[in-house]
Amino acid sequence: xxxxxxxxxxxxxxxxxxxxxxxxxxxxxxxxxxxxxxxxxxxxxxxxxxxxxx
Length: 54
Known about the structure:
The protein is mainly α. The chain has helices at 5-21, 23-46.
């Protein structure tokens, strides 16, 4: 398994955030990112079904 410094920093930042502020803020961020990702994915997939009425 390769070591990725960026992933290690991200994990460390998440651990520090949980220790300082609890899991509430981290959970909120994860949920917001998940909802935005789902909305963008739905938009991307559904835009191909648009009909052109020429």
